[in-house]
Amino acid sequence: MALAVQKLNSGINVINKDFSTRKLNKNQEIVQYLNDSTLRIWYNDQNEDYETHWHNAIEIIMPVEGWYDVTISEETFHVNPGEILFIPSGSLHSLHAPETGARFVFLFDLHFLEKLNGFTSISTILGKPIVINKEDYLPVYDDIYDLFIQMRTEYFSDSDFADIVIYSRLLELFSLIGKYRISEMKLSSTRIYKQKEYIDKFNEVLEYIDEHYMENLCLESIAYKAGFSKFHFSRLFKQYTNFTFNEYLTHRRIKAASDLLARPDLSITEVSLAVGFASISTFNRIFRQVNKCTPSEYRRKHDPLHRL
Fold first, then answer.
1. What residue range is the signal peptide (predicted)?
2. Nearest-CA neighbor of 121 among 275, 266, 252, 261?
3. How far is it, in rounded angstroms, from Cα 130 to Cα 83?
4. How far apart are CA 257 and CA 253, in angstroms?
5. Are 71 and 93 contacting, i.e. CB atoms less than 8 angstroms apart?
């Protein structure tokens, strides 16, 4: 563990030349990317706390000296050197630093990756906080840590191709985590080939939900389509996606609604109906629970003229 931390911390200039003050719009942080990039890596040795906020980027925190406390949706994570915490995009979180210490903070906007085949199953894993440590991820821990070292090194090298290299390492990282999580799932008490069959089925289920989330989907019909009983399907779906079926369906609908709210030609009622909510009041309530603002507030925040 100490060697891994030493490798991550070696050869880095502790003063970020691209440092800038944080910009908040109410409790939304406007991430300051550089040169039209969609990623940011910080070396943070400040003892400053950050109040509750959210942003569209996924945030990954890696302490290298001292601990770091992160509260995500009222759950607190005490992160130590050698551990890696993934904070889902859009989630409310606050940060508490010790008097002395240092950590790397990675910020990635993943929207342009969403069209990639197979990314749906990865996005379900990233939809909730993840803590990578040696105990839980022993077979792949060193490889994961090395990928972060490579991303950090590339970012601070000022290479013209840094973004391409970093995102290629990030995709490799997601693939590594996804395959490991699947290998650890007890999808069946039968043989290994059955697990592969189940994984293929659940990938098809996720693709079906992505194409039909605006329809009146129910657990029973999807379980029947997949060839499982409702109770067996519920258990496997939770293992595979880290969501219950209803949680994932809501997650997918709200994500689609967030995209549609960028269209000024659609009313909020039209957006609600387009993504599968039968009631505008239900849509408003759930949207506020997920995004911590109303659809109207979200639309204003993401309007280009409003940002300008």
1. none
2. 252
3. 10
4. 6
5. yes
Residue ranges per structural domain of the chain: 1-187, 191-242, 247-302
| Assigned CATH class of 247-302 | mainly alpha
With CA atoms as reference, report the closest residue to 39 among 201, 148, 197: 148
Task: Render pLDDT for 79-123 as a digit per residue (tens, 0 to 9).
Answer: 999 999 999 988 889 999 999 999 999 999 988 887 777 787 788
Token couple for 100 = 């002395």
Rounded distance, CA 126 to CA 87, Å?
8
Q: Return the pLDDT at 308.
A: 39
Task: Give residue 305's pLDDT.
Answer: 44
Mean pLDDT is lowest, of 14-18, 49-53, 69-73, 260-264, for 14-18
On the 0-12 / 13-18 / 19+ scale of CB atoms within 10 A, 242 is middle
> What class does CATH assign to 1-187?
mainly beta
Structure tokens, 214:
């605006």
Each residue of 206-239: pLDDT tens digit?
A: 889 989 999 999 999 999 998 899 998 998 888 8
Query: CA 306, CA 232: separation in Å to the nearest integer?
Result: 48
213: Cβ contacts below 8 Å, ≥ 6 apart:
249, 252, 253, 256, 275, 276
